[in-house]
Amino acid sequence: MEPMHSSMSTPSVGRMRLVQLDIIAAEAEAAGQWWLTDDEASRLQAMSAPARRRSFLAGHWLARRIAADWLQAEMTRIALQRHDDGRPCLLVDGAPSPLSLSLSHSGGWLAVALATMPVGIDVEVPRRQRDLDALARFAFSPEEAERLQRMPEAQRAAAFHTLWTLKEARGKRSGEGLLPARARRVTALPSDASAAEAMSWSFQDGALALAIDAGTEIGIEGGEMLGRPLFWRYAEDD
């Protein structure tokens, strides 16, 4: 683990893990499906795409493993359901857990975050060309879109994916998702570590972002693949 410390006397805490999805999916598939709740089994049965099924199993399996380790509980006591807004909800012995959970997968990678307060995580590893300018107009604030346009062409894709993952992570944390009209009113601005509401990393040809309370102590597993983070705060238009 690579702890990120804050100066708060009683900080919130969280854990983040980044792994290759196929490794965790193989573990989950080898275990069978006894660990799935009825809701999870029903959702899995409705998925026809093999890749979607593997990512679902991998994410839910790894979330249980991390939660069980954190809470020092048997995995059989841990279950996943959904909040009304669609966010995953961790249960212990059928009761809501004090931990919040966020999941993301892209390009063969799986990212999971748990914390003692609402948390959002997003990883984006692009596999095809997209119209970045159109997507920026769709979801970025005017300041962010202008910042992107001013960048040299060689840096623009990396900057886009950083801003995009910051938007997605924030929407997952709040439970509102990425609502374009709302997203265009929020600007991600550089911050010092002590006041940061989010962190981002360049990852392969994309990015990973974590939205979390300022001052949170984060334990990161798989961080050797990420390097040093950038720190951000979210500024909302009135």
From TrEMBL:
- What keyword terms does UniProt attach to this protein? Transferase
- InterPro entries from the xrefs? 4-PPantetheinyl_Trfase_dom, 4-PPantetheinyl_Trfase_dom_sf, AASDHPPT_N, P-Pant_transferase_sf
Source domain of life is Bacteria
Query: Which biological process terms from the Gene Ontology are attached to this UniProt entry?
Result: lysine biosynthetic process via aminoadipic acid
Instruction: Report the GO molecular function annotations.
Output: holo-[acyl-carrier-protein] synthase activity; magnesium ion binding
Look up the record and report any one GO term of the cellular component aspect.
cytosol
Gene3D superfamilies cross-referenced by the UniProt entry: 4'-phosphopantetheinyl transferase domain
Q: Where is the 4'-phosphopantetheinyl transferase domain?
A: 118-181
Q: Name one Pfam family in it.
A: AASDHPPT_N
Q: Does the keyword Chloroplast apply?
A: no
What SUPFAM superfamilies does UniProt report for this protein, alphabetically? Answer: 4'-phosphopantetheinyl transferase
* Domain 4'-phosphopantetheinyl transferase N-terminal stretches: 36-113
Family listed: Belongs to the P-Pant transferase superfamily. Gsp/Sfp/HetI/AcpT family.
Among PANTHER family, the record links this protein to:
L-AMINOADIPATE-SEMIALDEHYDE DEHYDROGENASE-PHOSPHOPANTETHEINYL TRANSFERASE, PHOSPHOPANTETHEINE TRANSFERASE
What name goes with this protein? 4'-phosphopantetheinyl transferase superfamily protein
In which organism is this protein found?
Thermomonas aquatica
Top-level taxonomy? Bacteria, Pseudomonadati, Pseudomonadota, Gammaproteobacteria, Lysobacterales
